[in-house]
Design brief:
This protein has helices spanning 2-10, 17-24, 28-40, 65-71, 90-116, 119-134, and strands spanning 44-47, 53-56. With 135 residues, it is mainly alpha-helical. The longest helix is centred in the C-terminal third of the chain and has 27 residues, at 90-116. Helix 2 (17-24) packs across helix 3 (28-40) and helix 4 (65-71) packs across helix 5 (90-116). The radius of gyration is 19 Å and the shape is elongated. It has one domain (2-134): Arc Repressor Mutant, subunit A (Orthogonal Bundle), CATH 1.10.10.10. A hairpin with a 5-residue loop joins strand 1 and strand 2. It has a two-stranded antiparallel ribbon. It comes from Pelagibacterium lentulum.
Length: 135
């Protein structure tokens, strides 16, 4: 979605779910469901009718990576999970306690960094890289 939002900042007019779906190689229904969370959070608005679609409701400078993460329902950041084989096993309990603490700290740090990065900063990096490619 970060990719899509930055593209939308350069898109003239509304971007349809079909256009975005092609960008992401997915189904427009998936796009509409995903974009709904961003709309509900106030980052997008949807226009109906001819020439309708999705439009940024706020500038990229007012949207952080954490904002997008929260609007998308806070999906798991880390795929590594706790063991659930035998909750009575004291070794499993000890491993899970240590792992849980480490994972919680890692997630806290990631979200802290996400809060400090706005989408316009990412867009700026894109423009710099594009300029380097054209030189």
């Amino acid at each position: 979605m970060l990719h899509v939002l930055i593209h939308m900042d350069h898109y003239e007019g509304a971007a349809t779910s079909e256009v975005i779906a092609r960008m992401l190689n997915t189904n427009p229904v998936v796009v509409r469901r995903t974009m709904a969370g961003l709309r509900d959070a106030g980052y997008l608005r949807s226009e109906k009718g001819h020439n309708g679609g999705w439009i940024l409701a706020r500038p990229l400078s007012e949207i952080t990576m954490r904002d997008v993460y929260v609007a998308l329902g806070e999906p798991p950041l880390i795929a590594l999970g706790l063991a659930q084989d035998d909750p009575r096993c004291v070794i499993e309990q000890a491993v899970n306690d240590r792992l849980r603490t480490s994972l919680e700290e890692a997630e806290r740090r990631i979200l802290e960094q996400f809060s400090a990065i706005t989408l316009d900063q990412i867009a700026g990096e894109f423009k710099t890289r594009l300029g380097e490619c054209q030189d």
